[in-house]
Specification:
The complex is a heterotrimer of chains A (280), B (151) and C (104).
Chain A: E1 2-3, H1 19-48, H2 54-65, H3 69-73, H4 78-89, E2 99-103, E3 110-113, E4 117-121, H5 122-127, H6 131-147, H7 149-168, H8 173-209, H9 217-225, H10 232-237, H11 241-255
Parallel strand pairs in A: 2-4
Antiparallel strand pairs in A: 3-4
Helix pairs in contact in A: 1-7, 4-6, 6-8, 7-8, 8-11, 9-11
Chain B: H1 2-35, E1 54-67, H2 70-82, E2 84-85, H3 87-107, E3 113-124, E4 136-148
Chain C: E1 2-3, E2 14-28, H1 31-43, H2 48-72, E3 76-85, E4 91-103
Parallel strand pairs in C: 1-3
Antiparallel strand pairs in C: 2-4, 3-4
Classes of the chains: A mainly alpha (280), B alpha+beta (151), C alpha+beta (104).
Chain lengths: 280, 151, 104
């Protein structure tokens, strides 16, 4: 038996497709599927949210927060609570049992949780000088409940997070890429809702005080202090304050709301240490 | 946003560096395969050669660990979703095996033939908490080098 | 092309050999099949999707090896060995190699 040395030309063991071409096709396919899924999911959430009864929502809320129920029930000041319930009385009749929770954290933020719970941070209250301004922020959060944004936002984000991680696994660079692009599109989604909530807050403010003076107080104070870095968290889900001020002013002109003097805010926030602090 | 930029940079870097390295490697593989063209490596055993002819026999082996670049890693992850041929890994495995065979051949100095060659592949460099990520691939080739008596 | 995993082709004599030939492939199923297979894992039984995948891959790698052997002018491959590796998750990696020979 003799050996004949021969060269093997070409390489049959490696596919000949160009990697760049393959990459573009695959990314395109993935994006297509992602976008379709996202739109379908958005439609689904919009379809489901109006059907969720307030009772069910309350149940969901109590289920989610039953653990730190006590900490959340405490209200820092009676005055804030009174103010909040005055606003609630102006709302159309719903089965929501609204409650206000003040967290002592020095974060400039406020949000609406399922079950009618509004959470405000001390850092935000400190930024506002007038009762009207404070009412506006509360009314804004109540607006989210009226539009059921809190369910909408949570629904889509929750479903997407679950889907992405089940398919690709949480540590996959692909799902990270997907989540990153999702938060960006989710942001414009919620910015529309923020604007709608602003307009709702304006009408509630008019019902409460008979005028809408002080509505833009909070945003003006944010803009003046110009401490953008510190409020990064706040801005991440909300539109730019200047855009919001101009949108509010436009609405005031259109609806011909009266503007009057504002009620200055006394130190409603009792700075004592006896109240339990809330960690969120 | 910064995450996306970093990701895109990594992919671009992976593509250019990986592509360049692969081209270089294949050039060197082809050059050395040419050099070793006269040293056959076969999978059948020594029974095929007349025993009185063999002067010496030694175990020879060669191994290579080749890692995948970031671009191909993403490409393979994408391919995994849609199914089909994972071309990104094919060149990786091909390079590792050919390199291993070449190293085995270069160990067999003065040999006339390598018999009973076996090639194995193993994946290493997978960290326990990231099971989805591909570390690198190791190929090992081993066989028995025979040198014949001068006739 | 005669493929054997013995030293020789029984009944024939090897007259010439050309060294190693090999074929390898890495193939994956789409994510839907992966999920189905994951569900099937609960009740056990044959994973048809994966059986299919491995068979396809094995055929493809053998075809590739045969292609190399044909290029060398061989008419048989002896001492064929199959090897699998698991570098990529959810993908089948098949490797097959042997010695290309000419038999009479």
């Amino acid at each position: 038996m003799k050996f004949t040395p021969k060269r093997i030309e070409g390489n049959v063991n490696v596919s000949k497709t160009s990697p760049i071409k393959e990459f573009v096709i695959l990314i395109g396919g993935l994006l297509g599927i992602g976008i379709t899924l996202f739109i379908a999911l958005g439609l689904l959430v919009d379809l489901i949210v109006p059907r969720i009864s307030v009772d069910f929502e309350n149940k969901l809320g109590s289920l989610l927060y039953s653990k730190f129920e006590n900490a959340h029930r405490t209200t820092e000041s009676k005055k804030l609570d009174t103010l909040f319930h005055q606003l609630v009385n102006h709302l159309p009749d719903t089965k929501h049992s609204f409650s206000l929770t003040v967290s002592k954290k020095d974060v400039v933020n406020a949000f609406a949780l399922p079950g009618g719970r509004v959470v405000m941070y001390k850092g935000l209250i400190d930024k506002i000088d007038s009762e009207n301004g404070l009412s506006f922020v509360m009314a804004h959060e109540l607006g989210h409940f009226m539009h059921r944004d809190h369910l909408r936002g949570m629904g889509r984000a929750l479903i997407l997070a679950v889907i992405a991680t089940t398919i690709f696994g949480g540590d996959n660079p692909l799902s990270q890429l997907l989540m990153e692009s999702l938060t960006i599109s989710e942001m414009t989604f919620s910015q529309d809702q923020e604007s709608a909530a602003d307009l709702f807050a304006l009408s509630l403010l008019a019902k409460q005080y008979g005028h809408v003076g002080g509505a833009t107080d909070f945003f003006i104070s944010l803009k003046e202090k110009g401490a953008l870095q510190k409020f990064k968290y706040f801005f991440s889900t909300h539109p730019n304050p200047e855009a919001r001020i101009s949108a509010i002013e436009k609405e005031i002109k259109e609806k011909a709301y009266a503007l009057d003097t504002v009620i200055p805010l006394e130190s409603v926030f009792v700075k004592d240490s006896t109240t339990p602090s809330i960690e969120l | 946003m910064t995450n996306i930029i970093i990701l895109i940079l990594l992919i671009a870097l992976g593509y250019y560096a990986g592509h360049h390295a692969e081209k270089k490697h294949y050039q060197s593989i082809k050059k050395r395969e040419e050099e070793f063209l006269n040293l056959p490596a076969v999978t059948f055993s020594e029974k095929m050669t007349p025993i009185e002819n063999v002067a010496s026999s030694t175990l020879v082996y060669g191994s290579a660990v080749i890692s995948i670049d970031y671009f191909k890693r993403i490409l393979a992850a994408l391919r995994n979703i849609f199914g089909g041929e994972v071309g990104a890994y094919e060149s990786l495995l091909d390079r590792a095996r050919r390199e291993a065979v070449l190293r085995m051949k270069s160990m067999a100095t003065n040999a006339n033939c390598i018999v009973n060659v076996r090639i194995e592949t193993a994946s290493i460099g997978k960290s326990a908490n990231r099971k989805n990520s591909l570390g690198s691939v190791e190929a090992i080739a081993y066989g028995t080098a025979l040198s014949f008596k001068e006739a | 092309m005669i493929l054997t995993n013995t030293e020789t082709v029984p009944g024939k004599t090897i007259v010439e050999h050309f060294g190693l030939v090999s074929g390898s492939t890495v193939r994956a199923k789409h994510v839907g099949k992966d999920i189905l297979a994951g569900l099937k894992n609960i009740v056990g039984g044959e994973l048809k999707g994966y059986t299919e995948l491995l068979q396809e891959s094995r055929h493809q790698s053998m075809d590739r090896m045969v292609e190399q052997a044909e290029q060398l002018g061989a008419n048989a491959i002896v001492n064929v060995r199959f090897a699998t590796s698991s570098v990529a998750q959810g993908a089948a990696e098949l490797y097959v190699y042997g010695t290309a020979v000419k038999v009479q």
